[in-house]
Amino acid sequence: xxxxxxxxxxxxxxxxxxxxxxxxxxxxxxxxxxxxxxxxxxxxxxxxxxxxxxxxxxxxxxxxxxxxxxxxxxxxxxxxxxxxxxxxxxxxxxxxxxxxxxxxxxxxxxxxxxxxxxx
Length: 119
Fold this sequence. Notes:
Oligomer: single chain
CATH superfamily: Response regulator
CATH architecture: 3-Layer(aba) Sandwich
Number of domains: 1
Order of helices and strands: EHEHEHEHEH
Radius of gyration: 13 Å
Mean pLDDT: 91
C-alpha cells in the first residue's frame, strides 16, 4: 500500500503542486528533492513507498537515478512525471525501472489513477 511518497523535481512550484495534490488524495509526502543525488539520499533515509520524479535533473539523468534506486531497492516503485513526450525517452524510463509515466501538464484524475495503481 502506498502511503509515503518522495517527490523529485527541479521546480519548487511543481513540487508544491504535486505535494498538494497527493495530500488532497490522502497520501503523506515524506520528502522532496530537486537533484538526483539528493533524491538517492532521501530515498535511502526515508524509505518511501513511491517516488514521483521528473527526468530532467541538474546533476544527472533521471534514468540514472531510476537505475540507482533499483540497485538500492529492487522493489522501488517509481512514477515519472515529465513534460518530455518522446517515445524513446518514455521507453528508456520504463526500461530503467519506472512503473508508469505521466506527461506534464497532467490531468489530476489521471494522476490519482496512477498513484492509486501503485498500491
